[in-house]
Structure formats: structure tokens, C-alpha cells
Amino acid sequence: YCIYYRLTGRTKTIRLNPKKVIDISHLNNILFIDKDATTITCELNVSMKTLVNTTLKENLVPLVVTELSSLTVSGAFTGIARECSSFKFRPFHITCSKIEIIIGDDKI
Question: Domain of life of the organism in this record (predicted)?
């Protein structure tokens, strides 16, 4: 199986077998903000820009905000993103309290 993000750095067109592709490109929504617990539930393709803009509307801000606004939550998590606030709050993935992982057979 291939997990397909739709956004790639490839210059060539890729041909994918639709029977062996898990398309996660649509998973880019913020699902819930809990102001009391100061937590947010979002999908993996939410960009830092969207995350910050949405939380600011609720007078909140993520503990670690990456400089690259197009970086996704999953990219920051798996890439162990560090920014200037990381000296206090540690890398981005440490600020995540729970994750769900999509594996190659389309199970969570």
C-alpha cells in the first residue's frame, strides 16, 4: 500500500494503483478546540498557518509554532520540529498528548 498526501516534491507525474492507495489528502480539518483543557484535536494535514490562525481566534496559541507556515502537524510531529519556544516546551511532538496513526493496511 501507498499513503498518498497529494502534495509532493516530485517533478514527475506518478501513477498509483487505486486499489493500493490510501488517500489522506483530505485530512486537513480542525475537529475540536477545548479551551478549558487548552487542547486541540485536528487532522494530520492541518498546516501551521491554519493551526495558529484558528487557535488565535480562541485566544490560544500552540506551545511550539514552526517558522514554516505550510508545515503540517504531521510533518512537525514526525520531523521533531524545534523552534525558539522549544527551549521551554521541548520539540513539537512532545506537546502532542495523543496521536492516531494510519498504517499501510488502512487501519488506525
Answer: Eukaryota
